[in-house]
Design a protein that fits this description.
This protein has 17 helices and 17 strands. The chain has helices at residues 13-21, 35-48, 105-113, 163-181, 201-218, 241-253, 267-275, 284-295, 299-313, 321-327, 345-373, 391-399, 442-447, 449-453, 472-485, 507-514, 528-541; strands at 4-6, 52-57, 62-67, 91-97, 118-124, 130-138, 148-153, 188-195, 221-229, 258-261, 280-283, 380-385, 416-421, 427-432, 460-466, 493-498, 518-519. Strand 8, helix 5 (201-218) and strand 9 (221-229) form a beta-alpha-beta unit. Bound molecules: guanosine-5'-triphosphate (GTP) and magnesium ion (MG).
């Protein structure tokens, strides 16, 4: 005889026996429950003063008998629903409610998160007989955003809902919606913005907008974005259990594969959230790391990104295997490195050490290369700035080259250098570098430290900003913060307000004037002469390069 689940402590032998006998019963596949089985459950429930429930499969067989307390009942582990699937669980929950209460939040959450065929609650009369029935089943995506449909039926004899046909019809609708949605096989993500705690709503929204661009760059399809305002951080789940549940419910309905948090989850938060869902979980840092992993071209860059990913992952490598693989999964199942997931922490540790050694060796040879390249003593002009500000486009415009410039974040990862000829036959080397971003993950800064250290060789920094971006000020600040962290604030710097072609006439120039910058449009090649004149002055008259030393 199968076991009775849940709160069985203190039950009499006869009651336990009656509960066990429930496994012998069955109902018609299309019936939600038979009046006989309903009476059996309500009578037992009244007698024990506990909720009693059954999980019925589509054939009408009893798969589990569960006892709760007077207010709720906890389902046995039926395994988690697979993320992004159109199937339901093939199980329906019918249980008793002792106080005539309608379906509770827990009932609805179980319905949605476990993807049950349906949930029903039988009211139990004082006499132990079944009263009204409350019933809910899931709904496909709809304009109202309703997740489920509730129904109330006066008695078990009037239950007309066809449990089996209803479930099959729902699955069909889910499958249809899924085919309609799956375009290009991209992973579907829900973004979760986090506001409050010294972050205004506008800031949280701007940040969420940036996360959207990051997601787009990573090749993820964003199907929904929600902003959670919170006064305090929930130490376990960041946004709080209830909010997390809301997000999970929504993502189940939209058949998302992935939830991306616009914040950094601490290792323990990442683990808790992963345990609550079968969806893949990423935070902002991981998304950025993922983009770097996708875009890294050089051997050097690849090693650096892998190192950063492993360092980020390392403290998160505790907890259940299954949640682990989802934390470590990355987008499209790409984890760190080319090898399969190495869940074993010690192996990760070893790999980190190994990578650090290799990178160190490479950075030695890079220094040698750099020295060779610049032994003719040409001044170096380095372009820095927020990602997507137009740095590579400016390099192209200035030097007539064709390095990759595109409307994604972090198009450039590996530094590129070109010669640039100034008037009077002077020459400089212009280098284009990886773009910066607010809260650039520390491990990534460290990983790119070697690359970024080249900036120390610069005689002049061109700080390019996108003058047309409403987040301009925050972006300038973020770049300066990173420059400060790299000890580069002592290098002479010019603020270049790019993309002025997107602003009304005169506005870009005005912005630039206010902050002693230069207004340009790299695509329209406007303002470049003024920029060169400014560089010329800073390099040879006021800058590090002694007048007349180079070229001339
Ligand atoms: N309208 C306009 N668009 C520009 C201008 N300069 C660059 N862009 C566009 O901005 C986007 C980003 O340009 P990139 O040069 O790749 O920017 P980046 O700063 O090198 O970006 P990352 O390497 O990704 O950090 C591209 O779509 C460019 O065409 C400009 O002056 N005006
Ligand atoms: Mg670039």
């Amino acid at each position: 005889m199968q076991e009775v689940h849940g709160n069985i402590l203190g039950l009499k032998q006869s009651q336990l026996h009656a509960l066990r006998r429930t496994y012998r019963r069955r109902v018609d596949p299309d019936e939600v429950i038979s009046p006989e089985l309903a009476r059996h459950l309500t009578a037992l429930s009244r007698e024990t003063n506990r909720q009693v429930g059954v999980l019925l499969d589509r054939k009408g067989d009893v798969q589990a008998v569960i006892v709760g307390d007077a207010r709720k009942l906890t389902l046995p582990d039926v395994g988690r629903a697979r993320a992004g699937s159109h199937r339901l669980r093939g199980l329906r929950l019918v249980h008793t409610h002792l106080d005539g209460e309608p379906l509770t939040r827990d009932d609805h959450t179980d319905l949605a998160l476990l993807r049950l065929d349906l949930v029903a609650a039988l009211e139990v009369g004082e006499d132990g007989l079944p009263g009204q029935v409350h019933l809910a089943h899931l709904l496909p995506e709809n304009p109202q955003g309703a997740l489920w449909k509730d129904e109330r039926v006066p008695s078990v004899h009037e239950l007309s809902y066809d449990a089996r046909a209803g479930a099959l019809a729902l699955e069909e609708e889910f499958a249809r919606a899924q085919t309609a949605r799956r375009t290009g096989g991209r992973e579907r993500a829900i973004l979760v913005g986090v506001g409050g705690r010294g972050r205004s709503r506008a800031e949280a929204e701007a940040s969420l907008a940036e996360l959207r661009e990051l997601a787009r760059t990573a090749g993820v399809e964003v199907i929904d974005a929600v902003l959670q305002q919170r006064r305090e951080v929930d130490p376990r789940t960041l946004i709080g259990k209830g909010k997390l549940e809301d997000v999970l419910l929504r993502s189940m309905q939209l058949m998302a594969d992935l939830i991306v948090f616009d914040a950094d989850l601490s290792p323990s938060q990442a683990i808790h959230v992963a345990e609550a869902t079968s969806l893949k979980i990423l935070d902002r840092t991981q998304l950025i790391l993922d983009i770097f992993a996708q875009r890294a071209q050089s051997a050097d860059g690849k090693l650096q990104v892998e190192l950063a990913q492993l360092k980020y992952l390392y403290p998160r490598l505790v907890g259940r295997d299954d949640s682990l693989s989802r934390l470590a999964g990355g987008i499209g199942g790409r984890g760190p490195g080319e090898t399969k997931l190495e869940i074993d922490r010690r192996r990760v540790r070893d790999r980190i050490t190994q990578l650090e050694r290799r990178i160190e060796a490479l950075s030695g040879s890079r220094a040698v290369r750099r020295k060779q390249r610049n032994e003719n003593g040409l001044p170096v002009l380095s372009i820095v700035g927020y990602t997507n500000a137009g740095k590579s486009t400016l390099l192209n415009a200035l030097t007539g080259s064709a390095v990759v410039a595109e409307d994604v974040l972090f198009a450039t990862l590996d530094p590129t250098s070109r010669r640039l000829r100034f008037p009077r036959d002077r020459e400089v080397i212009v280098t284009d570098t990886v773009g910066f971003i607010r809260d650039l993950p520390e491990d990534l800064v460290n990983a790119f430290r070697a690359t970024l250290e080249e900036l120390h060789d610069a005689d002049l920094l061109l700080h390019v900003v996108d003058a047309s971006d409403p987040r301009l000020d925050a972006q300038v600040e973020a770049v300066e913060k990173i420059l400060g962290g790299l000890g580069l604030l002592g290098v002479p710097r010019v603020l270049v307000f790019n993309k002025i072609d997107r602003l009304p006439p005169g506005q870009g120039e005005e912005l630039a004037h206010l902050r002693d910058g230069v207004a340009v449009s790299a695509v329209e090649r406007r303002g470049l002469e003024e920029l060169l004149a400014r560089c010329d002055r800073l390099l040879w008259r006021e800058g590090r390069v002694a007048f007349g030393e180079a070229g001339g």
